[in-house]
Amino acid sequence: MDTLACSLTDRGGELSVQEIDLYLRKSAITRQRERALTFRAQEERGRRWAADNGYAVRKVWADNLSAYTDTVRPEFDKAIAALANEEVPALWCYACDRFSRKGAGSVIPLLDSGKRIVFDYERLDSADPRDRRDIINRAEEAREYSALLSHRVTDTKTQQRKEGAWLGAPPFGFEIDDPVTRKLKNGVDWPTVLEVFERTAEGMSGRSIALKFNTSSPPVLSPDGKAWGGSTIHRMIQSPVYEGWQAITLKRGGRSVPFRDAEGNKVSVLAKGAKPVPPELVKRARLAVAGHGAVAPEHRSGKPKHLLSGLLECAACGGGSAIHGRSYRCYNFTVGKPCAAPMSAMRARIEEYIYGEWLGAVLRADLNDADPLMVAVAERWVALTKPEETEEHKHALAAVKAAETALERLAEDRKAGIYDGAMGRFFPRLVAEAETDLANAQRRVSEFNGVVDLTLFDDFDALNEAWQAADDDLRRDLIRLAIDKVTVTKGPRRGAPFDGDDRCVITWATPTRND
């Protein structure tokens, strides 16, 4: 029976043309090879074959992706599924290496089930039993070629990284200095990079920085030329390239980490004369992103206007308070949000009550017995009276937290299997470096363990006199030395006298440090 006859079926006494699907594939990176035809050229050949052999093209599937074994190709999967489910009796492909590079395992099940696959370039057709061995052999050859090519590409890229060549498009703020060495130099957007790190180090959020750039006139262009986003800022802060180091991603979609050579050393990607972001600035920015850094005054939330604003919490809904006339009232209720039992208290009455409780608690605390309340008061008193020293202390504490986090992350990465392969030889060295950083940070914190003068808080007359002489700002600060929150319930009835003991629960301050 000739080929045309094989493609005709009998439907109620009438001969009808059978259908065939075409599968087209082109590598995402086109190489200058004789058979690297475009989609249009492949489709033209497929339709010509179908017409010559009495088939009608039902559907064209096309993947602009690699055929490497670990590449997901959605159109290929759909084409094979259509063939396996007998939606179409045959599938045409330009060449074996365009079909799959997963080896014989990708074609044998189809051959065994009697599905027809045509490989145009090799002139192979699974309908001919004599072509079975050749199809299997060609599939294995394609797999071997893919493995060899992948190995060569990996070796080449590794060598280039060792030499400090940046393989992809230059990161934002950089330019390629030389197309041969592919080292990086500072570009026209470098001032924007520095501003990102400086603003972040000051405590400005990524979202706020993005908004500033997007609304400036003219707008500051982002790495992709579109609007800035907070995630873009975060990725820049964490990227090793802005420290001048070669970077790789250990897991797809994961974070970038410094590339290390065979000796475990980081590799510079900077051209002669190029400068990275200053190390101290990088450190402060990353601490700020992690939530451990000190926030510059201009980026802190404003001070409350009234004595207890920001301290009062409605017991019914957990919301804050708002000033309503001469009273503190549930904020949610004030702005029209639901609250089952909105609290409300006259300012003068509740302020007088809270001051009395504050005064009594502070004077009852034992200065000589490391009372937790007085330890907390001492920490906050130093922050209030010696802000410069406190900022340094915060940076030191932040460095300890960051070093502890780095050790935890190493442990998590090892548990996830990231250091199971070639990277495993670097693990002991990375742990040693992280432990050294932690020890240095802890040593720096110990330098701030000094004596704080708290005699003011041990004398009723002196403390009461200081309170009476204080302005509103200082009174707010003094109250917050010892109190974190006051939870207030709704009064028993409208106009009832204020009973602080019955309606208020005070959350007293606790130390931020355990030593």
Nutshell version of this structure?
With 515 residues, the chain is an alpha/beta fold. The protein has 18 helices and 17 strands. The N and C termini lie far apart (92 Å).
For this entry, give a set of tags.
Hect, E3 ligase catalytic domain fold; five-stranded mixed sheet; three-stranded mixed sheet; Rossmann fold; 515 residues; alpha/beta; disordered N terminus; single chain
Describe this structure in words.
With about 525 residues, this protein is of the alpha/beta class. The protein folds into 3 domains: about 5-145, Resolvase, N-terminal catalytic domain (Rossmann fold, 3-Layer(aba) Sandwich); about 175-295, Putative Large Serine Recombinase, Chain B, Domain 2 (Hect, E3 ligase catalytic domain fold), CATH 3.90.1750.20; about 305-365 and about 455-515, no CATH class. It has 18 helices and 17 strands. It has a 5-stranded mixed β-sheet with strand order 4-3-5-6-7, with helices on both faces. A 3-stranded mixed β-sheet has the order 12-16-17. The protein has a 3-stranded antiparallel β-sheet with strand order 13-14-15. Helix 13 runs antiparallel to helix 17 (about 470-480) and helix 14 packs antiparallel against helix 15. Mean pLDDT is about 80; it is low at about 1-5 and about 30-35.
The name of the CATH topology of the largest domain is: Rossmann fold
- Please describe the biggest sheet, giving its number of strands, its sense, and whether it closes into a barrel: 5 strands, mixed
Q: Strand order across the biggest sheet?
A: 4-3-5-6-7
Count of DSSP E strands? 17
Global structural class: alpha/beta
Strand content: 5-15%
Supply the number of helical segments. 18
Number of domains: 3
Q: What's the alpha carbon Rg, rounded to whole Å? A: 35 Å
> Span from first to last CA?
92 Å
The 3D shape can be described as elongated
Q: Runs with pLDDT <50, length 5+?
A: 1-6, 29-36
Q: What share of residues is helical?
A: 40-55%
What is the assigned CATH homologous superfamily of the largest domain? Answer: Resolvase, N-terminal catalytic domain
Instruction: Tell me which oligomeric state these chains represent.
Output: single chain
Mean pLDDT: 79
CATH class assignment of the largest domain: Alpha Beta
CATH architecture of the largest domain: 3-Layer(aba) Sandwich
